[in-house]
Amino acid sequence: MTNMTTFGNVQRRAEALAANYHDALVPVKEMEFADLKTVKIGGEPHHLRRVARQRVAARLGIPHPYLERCPAELQAEQLNYWLRGERNEEFFVRFDGAEIRAVFTPRYTPADNLEVLERLADIGVMPETKVQVALDAEFMSLSIPDQNRTFEVKGDRLTPGISVSNSEVGLASLSVKAFFLRLVCTNGLIAKTEVSSSYRHVSARILEELPQALGQVQGQLETSKDKMMISMTSPVSDPDATIRAFNRQFQLSQREQEAVAWGFMREFGDTMWHVVNAYTAGAQHSPLTAEENHKLQVVGGMVLGMVQ
């Protein structure tokens, strides 16, 4: 679920999440799986969180759904067998206390949320700046509206800005995109722009180029404003069927589809603007993770981008 808060509060929340974070290069030969959820490192057991389990399975070439269905003994046998063929001598492992939150190859350098927030502060985002955020241990979606650029489209007041998303555990690359905040309901829409700056996780280059990316994305806002106007006057004969089709196209999970249905009840109507806002309103549904929230805001922007 998203919420409006201040940039300073986001910094403090990120610091609290990171209180017990630490990273280590772990020799592969010191790792032994007891099952899918537990790996011993130097004989000490460590719990693997969901994303870490998925990444390990993918790295070793074992379908994760298959592993989940296997008994613990077979999980250990499969994982340890393929681990012995791993060509890297070490893994880059991200810990939260004793738990493992992510496993990468040594060449993969993830961007930390605190680094991203520090860079935003360096380029002028103040602690008291109002922002929209969805933040958990796996994903950060931070949107910064520019209150000085609020505009109106057919009576609907919107504030443009930029959205920065990042995953410390590898769910997505650091990304900078255009953002619109609908003031009547604080729905957030992450626009499909011609300039969408995404980077693989090489922290130094990402953080150096962040100011340029922000400037490029802001230059694309006018295109989205025009599409909003068109969407408000574009009738949809069967909104439910249209939403179901988009749900299939963007491969939404059952929980995400339920959130969109909830959002459409809040934004009920028969234009493309109502369809777009079913997704952006759905992003505020409380059971969603930060990643799911971000996805629905992005899908809303993708749907808007299709408007002709």
- Fraction of residues in β-strands: 25-35%
Helix/strand-derived category reads alpha+beta
Enumerate how many helices there are, as a single number.
11
Number of strands: 14
Radius of gyration: 21 Å
Task: Please explain how this structure is put together.
The protein is α+β, with helices and mostly antiparallel strands and 308 residues long. The protein folds into two domains: 21-104, no CATH class; 112-305, no CATH class. Helices cover 42% and strands 26% of the residues. The strands form three sheets. Strands 1, 8, 9, 10, 11, 12, 13 and 14 form an eight-stranded antiparallel beta sheet that branches. Strand 10 (151-153) and strand 11 form a beta hairpin. It is globular. The model has no long low-confidence stretch (mean pLDDT 88). It holds the Pfam family DUF932. It comes from Desulfoferula mesophila. InterPro entries: DUF932.
Overview in brief:
This is DUF932 domain-containing protein. This protein has 308 residues and is of the alpha+beta class.
Secondary structure blueprint with pairings:
Layout: E1 3-6, H1 7-17, E2 21-27, E3 31-35, E4 38-41, E5 44-47, H2 50-60, H3 64-69, H4 72-83, E6 90-96, E7 99-104, H5 113-122, E8 130-135, E9 140-145, E10 151-153, E11 156-166, E12 174-182, E13 187-190, E14 197-199, H6 203-218, H7 221-232, H8 239-249, H9 254-266, H10 272-282, H11 290-305
Antiparallel strand pairs: 1-8, 2-6, 3-4, 4-5, 6-7, 8-9, 9-11, 10-11, 11-12, 12-13, 12-14
Helix pairs in contact: 5-6, 9-10, 10-11
